[in-house]
Q: What sequence folds into this?
């Protein structure tokens, strides 16, 4: 790939090399000694590209410089994950020379990046073995055992709910009672929808915000949703897909459990202020979203329960692009940033829930409460939820075609739940057509 | 084209009434002041043109909760404008740097586009040489190249040249514009009489002298508009700067984008950022506006 | 006025232009005349080679290969990618959407702009104020336009539907109905570009010679008549200019529909996915199929060329009186040879006189 790029711009390259040499980037370039390593006194700047909020405050990064005086850490922050992804993709497609020393990626991008592991340094290292949840490491490991990224956070899901709306509908409000009401340790989706039917019978609010979100929660508990284990796409033939689709849409439209929003859209945001729905599937990072959007609303709480066992939504990794100038130093920094201690600090800064097993014993984490959610012990709750994810025993396999097929089903649900363009049956046919058109 | 009857419908009554009023007053000529109907139409247009900006002000002076609760914002701006702007400017997004970057990029682009377009326009409109018409057609055809796909090849080239994350990487592609060449060609063909060029040539002026002393002054009104348009175009451009620069070294639209986060976006802050981005252009308008309008007038008197 | 008062040509007559140096000066002059025209257009072509031609050729090369954006070049596949694109119902739908949004934006835009320019062309009080006011939307960044109109057109919580409900009408499904979504997106486009086109028309209107109006008034033409028999024909080159540029810009439309919802894919039914968005999705979205995206880019390029040509031919017929001007005339004439008066030529008379 990199060779291709060079060949293509061979003529410009000559010119370019001269320029690059003349105005090369970091101070490290000036050092004529090619054998520098992390231990030397060479002053280097490492860039770390993240998005959203990883909790990497200036103070936190300054700690690294305090421990490693020769390293300055510069943080390149994109606002939205999509922005970071477009940037990363364009950079990789162009040979990867414009990348930061450390690039953060979301778990959902792994499917395609794992196909081109050569872009990234292999980070596997005996020193970090056993640091993360098994599922977290497995998802970022290639078949031949290369580790593409160090896990930062995970998105174990619980149920967030509005205690005040529950009370008005005659449902229990205490978080332990609610967890029990929704089925406790053996909670199923049927339990969750059943309580929803009771709720909407007694309330003007809907039970949940979005059907797509529910489907996402269900399909993440299916090991091979759209592909076989070797990556062969199977379209929509897996009966579990159709079952989840039917269950979600029948609950959403026939039973009226859904508020009919598309997440992140203006209407969804407004829905938080208008008592539009009473529960949400709630990965750890969603706390910040709810707290921001529902500012001034009292009554949000979190129940330590999730239908169908555990469920993970989102979470990220730090990768080290192989073409960087300071790969070793960058790996050392990534290792430090993803250590349980640092991640617990990041969690305190931004609510990004650790993927590091040892962090779950850390009192700073286990003792964490979220005042907005009625002082819910979120550290404890999400640690439980995270272990429940690991207990599922498998990870949903997301191969190269996963998201293209998933998009078709997601669109189908939106057409029924949000825009109301089609009924469930027609929309499903349209989804099948869309998958066929992919020509996989 | 089918548009003509529609023009009659939309422009007709006002224009007709205007003509009638003129006749009543007894004199012809274009210098008569138009009546209140014209001003009423313009006021309505202005209202439509300005409301979205005012809406921005309404949201920027509000807060996230009240924005979410009230689809119809309070008519008068609320009290949070300055605190929101202060929060935006004092936050983690480097607005100061973005402002400087945008200023450098937009100014360079405007100057270069005006210079190169006027040169090319002079050549296309007034000089005779082999291949002129096909070359001009070619220039216009280049506008049809879809910009999104140029991203990867250009990015490859620019990283090789060391222009990634460098303002040069934004400025260089902005330095010429097919639109500008087309525009100046159209204008100079109309506004620059051959007699003037001939006179200069007969007097022994070189081509470049002729261009500088004859074509440039003639081009001024159109050049002013082109310069302003180009400046604005690059001030508001998002996609290419976003690809080639990083968020530590952004332009203003990138900075606005940075105010949005995935999980929760406080629109009062984003809109305050929009205001901060737009305000310098407003100032430019007020300052350059008179120049621009008199420029248009200068072109007119020529007739 | 500044136009006819450049430094008077006499003032620049070079004193040293004496007979002695004529030979050299002649040679220099001939070279000057021959090379300058190309020299003046060269900056455009040099930069275009880098930012236009190179990407275009690169794209052509990519489009005949199997090519994953991340994985890089694969096998040569000829025109397979082009065939695949046409077999995609989404592509056909995207073409329909693009033309629909284009029609809904460009037609009202051009008509409104001409009408507004005619109004602004009057001898108004506070001219600057009105003209700048019309141009106001142009300074709002597309990113901001997307944000603002995204909120205005939100289905449940937007201002527009809230107002519709208040006056007793049904709220409109801005994101659920295909045509309605096109109207909303066209509104964003029109908001930003109408004033811009108005000013371009206005500049052209101001260049219409007063005598033509005076002659028309003597002939007893009313205001309306003057507009159609004097203004519109005189505006022809500008109309052609704006129609061509609007066609090119309109068919490439990307930002506004992309920002119309959070996913940027044209909604769950791809109701407002345009060709440029489709290209981006195929290349950068889940498929990362750069080869196919390149084929789409080329198809879009060809479509634009064809439509721009058709529009040019149509708009050439807008008015029949008066000869076309400017680039339009050049284009119309092809080689540009026909109908040239000797005086209407800058380079040649002088050089010819020197050559003989």
A:
């Amino acid at each position: 790939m990199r060779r291709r790029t060079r060949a293509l711009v061979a003529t410009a390259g000559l010119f370019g090399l001269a320029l690059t040499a003349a105005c090369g980037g970091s101070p490290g370039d000036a050092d004529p000694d090619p054998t520098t390593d992390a231990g030397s006194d060479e002053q280097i700047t490492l860039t770390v590209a993240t998005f959203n909020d990883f909790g990497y405050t200036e103070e936190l990064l300054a700690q690294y410089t305090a421990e490693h005086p020769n390293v300055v850490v510069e943080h390149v922050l994109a606002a939205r994950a999509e922005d970071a992804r477009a940037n990363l993709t364009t950079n990789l497609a162009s040979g990867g020379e414009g990348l930061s020393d450390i690039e953060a990626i979301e778990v959902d991008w792994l499917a395609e990046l794992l196909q081109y592991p050569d872009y990234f340094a292999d980070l596997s290292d005996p020193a970090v073995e056993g640091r993360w949840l098994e599922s977290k490491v497995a998802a970022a490991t290639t078949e031949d055992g290369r580790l593409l990224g160090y896990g930062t956070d995970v998105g174990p899901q619980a149920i967030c709910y509005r205690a005040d709306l529950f009370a008005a509908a005659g449902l229990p409000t205490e978080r332990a009672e609610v967890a029990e009401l929704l089925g406790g340790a053996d909670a199923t989706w049927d339990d969750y929808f059943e309580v929803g039917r009771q709720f909407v019978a007694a309330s003007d609010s809907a039970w949940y915000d979005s059907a797509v979100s529910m489907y996402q929660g269900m399909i993440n508990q299916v090991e091979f949703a759209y592909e076989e284990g070797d990556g062969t796409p199977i379209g929509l033939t897996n009966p579990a897909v159709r079952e989840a689709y039917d269950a979600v849409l029948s609950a959403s439209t026939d039973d009226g459990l859904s508020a009919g929003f598309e997440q992140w859209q203006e209407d969804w945001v407004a829905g938080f202020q208008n008592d539009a729905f009473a529960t949400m599937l709630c990965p750890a990072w969603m706390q910040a979203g709810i707290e921001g959007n529902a500012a001034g609303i009292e009554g949000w709480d979190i129940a330590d329960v999730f239908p169908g066992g555990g469920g993970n939504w989102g979470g990220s990794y730090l990768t080290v692009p192989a073409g960087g100038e300071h790969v070793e130093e960058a790996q050392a920094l990534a290792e430090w940033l993803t250590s349980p201690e640092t991640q617990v600090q990041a969690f305190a800064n931004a609510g990004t829930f650790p993927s590091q097993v040892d962090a779950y014993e850390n009192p700073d984490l286990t003792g964490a409460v979220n005042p907005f959610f009625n002082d819910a012990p979120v550290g404890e709750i999400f640690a439980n939820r995270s272990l429940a994810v690991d207990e599922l025993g498998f990870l949903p396999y997301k191969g190269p075609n996963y998201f293209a097929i998933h998009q078709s089903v997601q669109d189908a649900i939106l057409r029924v739940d949000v825009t109301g363009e089609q009924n469930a049956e027609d929309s499903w046919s349209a989804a099948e057509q869309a998958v066929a058109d992919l020509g996989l | 084209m089918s548009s003509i009857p529609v023009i009659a419908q939309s422009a007709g009554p006002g224009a007709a009434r205007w003509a009638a009023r003129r006749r009543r007053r007894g004199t012809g000529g274009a210098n008569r002041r138009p009546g209140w109907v014209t001003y009423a139409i313009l006021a309505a247009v202005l209202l439509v043109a300005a409301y979205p900006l005012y809406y921005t002000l309404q949201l920027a002076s509000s807060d996230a909760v009240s924005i979410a609760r009230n689809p119809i914002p309070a008519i008068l701006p609320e009290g949070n404008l300055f605190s929101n702007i202060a929060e935006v400017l004092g936050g983690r997004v480097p607005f100061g740097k973005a402002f400087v970057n945008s200023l450098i990029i937009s100014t360079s682009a405007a100057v270069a586009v005006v210079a190169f377009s006027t040169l090319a326009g002079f050549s296309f409109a007034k000089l005779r040489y082999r291949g002129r018409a096909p070359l001009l057609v070619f220039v216009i055809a280049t506008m049809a190249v879809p910009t999104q796909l140029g991203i990867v090849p250009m990015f490859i080239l620019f990283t090789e040249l060391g222009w990634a994350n460098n303002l040069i990487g934004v400025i260089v592609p902005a330095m010429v514009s097919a639109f500008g060449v087309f525009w100046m060609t159209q204008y100079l063909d109309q506004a620059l009489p051959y007699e003037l060029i001939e006179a200069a040539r007969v007097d022994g002026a070189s081509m470049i002298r002729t261009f500088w002393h004859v074509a440039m002054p003639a081009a001024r009104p159109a050049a002013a508009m082109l310069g302003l348009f180009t400046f604005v175009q690059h001030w508001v451009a998002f996609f290419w700067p976003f690809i080639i620069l990083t968020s530590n070294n952004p332009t203003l639209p990138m900075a606005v984008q940075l105010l949005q986060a995935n999980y929760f976006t406080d629109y009062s802050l984003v809109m305050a950022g929009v205001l901060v981005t737009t305000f310098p252009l407003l100032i430019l308008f007020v300052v350059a506006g008179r120049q621009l309008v008199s420029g248009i007038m200068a072109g007119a008197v020529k007739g | 006025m500044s136009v006819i008062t450049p430094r008077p040509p006499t003032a620049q007559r070079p004193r040293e232009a004496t007979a002695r140096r004529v030979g050299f000066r002649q040679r220099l002059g001939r070279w000057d005349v021959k090379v300058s025209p190309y020299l003046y257009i060269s900056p455009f072509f040099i930069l275009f080679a880098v930012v236009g031609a190179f990407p275009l050729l690169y794209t052509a090369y990519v489009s005949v290969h199997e090519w994953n954006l991340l994985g890089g070049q694969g096998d040569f596949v000829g025109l397979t990618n082009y065939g695949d694109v046409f077999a995609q119902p989404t592509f056909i739908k995207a073409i329909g959407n693009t033309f629909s949004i284009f029609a809904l934006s460009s037609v009202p835009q051009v008509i409104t702009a001409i009408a507004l320019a005619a109004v602004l062309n009057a001898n108004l009080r506070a001219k600057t104020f009105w003209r700048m006011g019309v141009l106001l939307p142009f300074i709002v960044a597309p990113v901001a336009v997307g944000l603002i109109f995204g909120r205005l057109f939100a289905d449940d919580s937007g201002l527009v539907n809230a107002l519709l409900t208040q006056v007793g009408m049904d709220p409109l499904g801005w994101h659920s109905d295909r045509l309605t979504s096109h109207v909303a997106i066209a509104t964003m486009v029109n908001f930003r570009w109408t004033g811009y086109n108005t000013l371009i028309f206005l500049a052209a209107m101001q260049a219409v010679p007063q005598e033509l109006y005076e002659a028309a008034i003597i002939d007893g033409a009313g205001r309306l008549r003057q507009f159609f028999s004097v203004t519109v024909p005189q505006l022809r080159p500008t109309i052609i200019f704006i129609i061509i540029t609007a066609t090119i810009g309109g068919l490439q439309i990307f930002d506004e529909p992309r920002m119309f919802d959070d996913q940027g894919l044209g909604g769950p039914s791809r109701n407002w996915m345009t060709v440029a968005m489709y290209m981006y999705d195929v290349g950068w979205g889940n498929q990362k199929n750069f080869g196919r995206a390149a084929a789409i880019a080329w198809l879009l390029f060809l479509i634009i060329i064809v439509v721009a040509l058709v529009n040019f031919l149509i708009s050439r017929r807008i008015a029949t009186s008066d000869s076309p001007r400017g680039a339009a005339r050049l284009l119309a004439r092809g080689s540009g040879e026909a109908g040239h008066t000797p005086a209407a030529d800058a380079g040649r008379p002088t050089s010819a006189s020197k050559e003989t």
